[in-house]
Amino acid sequence: MDLTEQEIHNMAMQVVGELLKEDGFEFLAVNSKLKKDPQFVCLKEKKLHFVVVKGSLYPENPKQYDLKLMAQIKEHATKYNAFTYYAGVGFAHADDYEKPLSKTEPYVVNYDGLQEIH
Questions:
Q1: Per-domain residue ranges of the chain
Q2: Where are the beta strands (DSSP E) in the chain?
């Protein structure tokens, strides 16, 4: 059974959320609904951070983001003196990247961390 877009998004949220927590971010707001941006509003060292999360499947490049969307988020963040980040998380079937992802089979994660939007 193939994963839905929302399930892929939730998997990406989990990957990013765990790493943000490990890195000392404090969550002020979390929104896991698709197309509700940003997904994470966090505090770290008394500074506000907006994080947009997007999950994708191989062969899509998880680092590519919607420039127009990120410009809107950046503009919104500026009003709050917040930093803006994009977190693209790619997933693929662990045994064969061409196979569809399922809930019951192993997968690999392609995530290089937060990309700051300037």
A1: 5-116
A2: 26-30, 40-44, 47-57, 83-93, 107-110, 115-116
Closest CA to 55 of 19, 17, 11: 11
Q: What is the mean pLDDT of each run of 10 residues along the chain (118 residues)?
A: 89 97 97 93 97 96 96 96 98 94 91 96
Question: CA-to-CA distance for 2 and 65, rounded, in angstroms?
Answer: 24
Reported pTM? 0.94
Strands 47-57 vs 83-93: parallel, antiparallel or unpaired: parallel
Residue ranges of the alpha helices (H) in the chain?
Answer: 5-22, 67-79
Question: Rounded to whole angstroms, how far apart are CA atoms 114 and 105?
Answer: 27
CATH architecture label of 5-116:
3-Layer(aba) Sandwich (3.40)
**Do residues 5 and 34 lie in contact, with contact meaning Cβ atoms separated by under 8 Å?**
yes
